[in-house]
Sequence to fold (346 residues):
Amino acid sequence: MKRADVFSEIAFCATVCMLLLVSSPSMSAAQRHPALSPLMRELEKSLSYARGPRPQNGKWPRTITYDYRTYDFRENIFRDEKKTVLLAAKPTRIIPHSAGIAEILWAICPRQRLVAFNEISADPEYSFIADQIRNTGRVFTSLQTEQVLGYRPDLVFTVFYSDAAFKKKLKQAGIPCLDLGYFGSISSIKKQVLLLGSIIGEESNAHALVRTMDSAIRQLRKELPQNKKQQRVLYYDTGGYIPGRTSGFASICDIIQVINIGTEQGIRSWAQIDYETLLKWDPDVIIVPAGSHLKETLTTSRILSHARAIQRGKVYDVPRRYLAASSQYIVLSARLLAGIVYEKSF
Fold:
């Protein structure tokens, strides 16, 4: 069950969850924790703690209306609707049922208000704050509903791909549960940061975090090589799945001014391709998840022996948490990917 929950954290990867499930070997410590430059470490620190200049003096009760988006995998379309929630009082015992939500709240919410975290938030392969979460000792699995109830939360945040049985049990127990839907692109992540700030009464901190993200993106773009031909980059995941224009990876490519081949080829969410298609598209750079053995598989394929990226040695392992980032840390992912693609320190 843990692996199924893990891959639910990857935006739009629900359709390929079982393929990932059967072929995701464990990673070494070096793969999970690549050496970061001092600038990267400083950026990670600034993204982990945001405090605004104004005190948090919001009024309660409050009504919040927000955009709720889900993805219909059968029809390959988004479905949007407006949702409204009435909050009687400022939530003080909060549980996030998503690594991305946990990472955002870790930065903008006083941490004593975060009473527990799901196991994915404590997994360093998928979470940027895993070490800190494990140190809290308050980690549960999606099967441990009784343990969640024991924390006496006054608000549990879920997302549209959170386990349906888990959400049903919370509802039956009368636990307030707020479903935030889908988010993955940089613009949707910033919207979620601001929404979360409004819901928990930490608007000033949320705006501060968004400003940090925007500032980091502007700084990175200033450092990128100018007047250089855009490189075409392919993120190739287990089972031959690649992300399209609505993915977080597409946002990363936009930030670092490279072409996401999935977007170029008209893919909306995720699509599966074979080696012949990969060879036809002939990317300049191929990115694969660290620990997946895909680099070895691709570079030893006879079919792909003439591919540009294979011949030039441009196939790179990247820790999965950078590829699956669905929080403010997507900015950190962009800086890491820029260093790989442009082969220089950022």
In short: The chain has a mean pLDDT of 88. The chain is about 40% helix and 15% strand.
